[in-house]
Amino acid sequence: MNDQGLRFRIGVFVLAAMILLAVLIILFSGLPTIFVQHRQYTIVFDDAPGVAPGTPVRRSGVRIGEVKSVELDDETGKVRVTIVVEKRYTLRKNERPTLTTGLLGSDISIDFIPEPPDGAAVDRSPVEPGAELTGVKQADPRSLMTQAAAAMPDLQRTNAELQIAARNWGRVGERTDLLLRENQDRMVRALENFDDTVRRIGSVFSDENQKNLNATLKNVKAGSDSLESMTKNTDQLLKESRETLHRVNESIKQTDKVLTNLQKATEPMAERGGAMMKNLDESTEQLNRLLGEIRELVRLLGRGDGTLQRLLSDPALYNNVNDAACMLTRLMPRLDRILRDMEVFADKLARHPESLGLGGVVRPSAGLKEAPSAGNGRWSHGPGH
User: Fold this and answer.
1) For site-directed labelling of 35, which of 65, 133, 197, 350 has its Cα 20 to 30 A away?
2) Is 99 domain-assigned?
3) Using alpha carbons only, what angle is made at residue 365 by residues 341 and 348, rounded to the nearest 5 degrees?
4) Would residue 322 count as lying in a domain?
5) What's the CA angle centered on 300, arms 294 and 304, to 5 degrees?
6) Nearest 10 degrees: CA dihedral of 24, 25, 29, 31?
7) For residue 245, is pLDDT > 50?
8) How wide is the angle at C-alpha 54 spanned by C-alphas 127 and 58, nearest 5°?
9) From the CB of residue 197, how many other CB atoms can be counted at a distance below 10 Å?
10) Mean pLDDT, the chain, whole residue set
């Protein structure tokens, strides 16, 4: 029993130790998201060397989250890093996610660094959870050292050139000192003259002259403002003038065309001007005579004893003409019958011309038309003939 109880106690102790170890691992390892609420974001880098799940995410040097996953976009070659940030921290739109590396390349983190203001208003609005951000990579100290090492020959050449320039400037300084010593009196006189000139300039710029100068400057400024408006008006006037000249040019072209057509039309008239004028004079003279005759005719027609005037003014003449027309209308049927009888008589006479002689008295005809019978080119008149 004692042996079994000891084993049981040892097993309970081992189990408790394992549970405590698991709790410690959860609390101090890379699984803090189980107990703390987070927001998730995605950062896209051109390259992200050394970034792995658990890489710290900092803001102003304070850890606010960590990297959750790292994925490579096979199509674009970009690296998509998913991070989780504690809910109590808020990312701002003016902060740029920057991949930073320590001097020895071991301390790798993603820092949110505020962008320097460029004169415009800074957008400090919060970034929506789940948003995709564009990250940048900070200059690597090793690459900087490599660039510095590559630039050392240039720096050495520049240093040598600076030393040569310093020696040359030293020589120039010595010559300048010598020149100043030799021309000291001249320089003193020049400075005295310059002082006198300055005094004269000061006397010129008295209070009254300054007021006049200020008034002149104001007038010049007003004139400059007016000149700007005048320039605009002049530009508008020039533009309208160009349009007007264009229209005048078009009008002149149209006028030239009209004059050309008019010249072509009047050229035959110019060539035949004499004959046309003669014909025109004769036509005018004939028209005048015709108008005179028409006036005389109208005058004669307008006389009180004229036929037309009587026809227009005397109703009896009109009535007589109307009666005559009515009688003529009644006589027309009778005249038609008479004409038919005469036609029959003429036809009869043409068939039997002997009826006008003695034979017509002895043997009168029936008074009807008879069909002619041809015989040896003569007319047949019945038996016995």
Assistant:
1) 133
2) yes
3) 40
4) yes
5) 145
6) -100
7) yes
8) 45
9) 10
10) 76
Mean pLDDT over residues 318-323, rounded? Answer: 74
CA distances (Å), origin 175, targets 172, 178, 179, 180, 203: 5, 5, 6, 9, 39
Residue 139 phi/psi, 5° resolution? -60, 130
How many domains does the structure of the chain reveal?
2
Q: What amino acid occupies position 286? A: Q
User: 33: burial class by Cβ within 10 Å (0-12, 13-18, 19+)?
Assistant: middle
Range of the domain at 60: 31-116+123-142
Contacts of 303 (CB under 8 A, 6+ apart): 309
Which two three-digit tokens encode residue 71? 């994925």
Lowest mean pLDDT among 18-32, 56-70, 231-245: 18-32
Q: pLDDT by residue (tens digit) across 73-131?
A: 999 999 999 999 999 999 998 999 999 887 666 688 999 998 887 767 788 899 999 99
Q: Does residue 384 lie within any of the structural domains?
A: no
Cβ pair 108, 51 in contact under 8 A: yes
By three-state DSSP, how is residue 94 classified?
coil
